Amino acid sequence: MQESIKIAAPATISNVGPGFDILGFSTELISDVIELRIRKGERNIIIENKGRRWATPTNPIENTAGIAVFEFLNFVKANFDVIIRIEKKIGIGTGLGSSAASAAAVVFGLNEMLKTKLDENELIKIAIKGEKASAGAEHADNIAPSLLGGFTLIKGYSPLEIVKIENHLNFFVLILLPDIVINTSKARKILKKTIPMNKVIEQSGNLASLIYAISKGELELFFNSFKDSIIVPQRKKLIPFYDELQEHAFNKGARAFGMSGAGPATIALTESKELAKTIGTELKLFLKTKNISANIFVTKLSLSGTHLIK
Ligand code: HSE
Asked: Which of 142, 176, 213, 223 is the most buried if burial means most Cβ atoms within 10 Å?
């Protein structure tokens, strides 16, 4: 039995325009790195943080990765102690799938070490139990792309069905990350439980077109369908100056704009890397005039998901 392993799990963009809770993609931006060690034992889970910038809770029942490990051991009925060493590189509460990456990494790692051969769906089902701890809901639109890479669609939650969408698009993503934290669980609680029929029709039309565009490589249709009529209108108040940021981005040539997950990161999509950088600089300066500091990153969709590190 392999006793230790090191895994990387990438940051992800979830919701993706009209795809609330069902569409996400993996990015080249950054990955959480997790080392797992196991030994025969009574399912004691020990969490260590490597690096202090983004320390995660060391109580396993409060930690996404800790919960996912416990659920995994329970599922495969294995009795091991597990030491999880988390090098958190994806900022917590940024909207870039930080909690999901850690949960994806541990289920992937245990599956390798224990040779349990669980399939992707089973791994995601276990990992979303961890996600519930931070988001208050078992959403899979960060876990699935972090684990599998590329674009992933959640066809349904009950039963969980994931569809990997082959990507034929080439675009750049500007991520603007203001220096504030949004708690996903709170950002979910503000959402209304009912939606007017006309909004459902608008959203479904855009979502269907967006997915068609991804699989056919129709970039214009993709940009043009990247609209959220339901969730962003309710959540944008959580991000200072959201409407102004969107307007500046479009004026500078962005082809699409939206929130990344529950924010506070926003994303602007472009066809060129240079343009993404220019827009980022402009938006950052704009926020500075409002006394809000922010970081900007330019990245792309990544086809690789969670993987081993030698
Ligand atoms: N789909 C989730 C939400 C993503 O918007 O609540 C959270 O990162």
From this structure: 142
